[in-house]
Amino acid sequence: MDGGAFGAGKAGGAFDLHAFIRQPHTLLRLLSWLFAIVVFGSIVNEGYINQMDETQEHCIFNRNHNACNYGITVGVLAFLSCLLYLALDAYFPQISSVKDRKKAVLSDIGVSAFWAFLWFVGFCFLTNQWQASKEEDNPLNEGGDAARAAITFSFFSIFTWDYMDPSQDSGMPYAPYTNEEDATDAVGMYQQPPPADAFDTETQGYQTQNY
Fold first, then answer.
1. CA proximity to 93, closest of 31, 23, 32
2. What is the pLDDT of residue 29?
3. What pLDDT is stored for residue 14 in this prediction?
């Protein structure tokens, strides 16, 4: 089987870092990685506040610790997922087995859809809890910028993970596989057979055709 199945070129080819970084799929992966850092970093650093007469810190999102925990958990796991699949993208040209390449593509499709869904839920959850927050719980509006940053980049992450789906990305490192037999049949459809009188059996000679 040709090593170019799923569009990665022949297995064992030299890794080109410059070409790899310029791929749209890789850029989306890096953006998703950066957005995840912003989300969980904002919540960890400024997502917990307490009033002067309190010692216990509360989540800035309506004092709902589940909101902060969700944002941090999804952000950290998305960050790790981006690193894992960046490594897989870099290693992909070395995979010679078509079955293994197919598994990698299908897992990327599933993971991208899964994270797009989780970020959508996170965006809705954080937005709802931020709107429900009471002014008396945070009279000085501490951490407001961090909360808005977490919400904003949760929203952006929905689209970066959605467009990272290999089935929607024409610049992906692994394009859809085409069966060699199907490709041969497709080529054959465009080949016209020679005219019936192109070869004269009586004269045993090839006759000049007028086109």
1. 23
2. 93
3. 62
Q: Tokens 């016209």 sit at which residue?
A: 192
Q: Is 191 exposed, middle or buried (0-12, 13-18, 19+ CB in 10 A)?
A: exposed
Q: Is the dihedral of CA 55, 59, 64, 68 positive or negative?
A: negative
- Tell me the sheet residues that pair with 205: 200
Closest C-alpha to 103, from 15, 168, 33, 166: 166
Residue 166 Cα distances to 16, 62, 104, angstroms: 20, 38, 10
Q: Which residue has the tokens 């490594």?
A: 87
> Residue 78 carries which side chain, given as an amino acid letter?
A
Model-level pTM? 0.69
Question: In which residue are the tokens 């599933």 written?
Answer: 110
- The residues facing 200 across adjacent strands are 205
Q: How many CB atoms lie within 10 A of CB 206?
A: 10
57 token code pair? 């810190």
Residues 73, 68: Cα–Cα separation, whole Å:
8
- Average pLDDT of adjacent 10-residue blocks, the chain of 211 residues: 45 67 88 96 90 80 93 96 91 84 90 95 96 82 89 96 68 46 45 51 50 49
**Element (H or E) spanning 48, and its range?**
strand 48-49
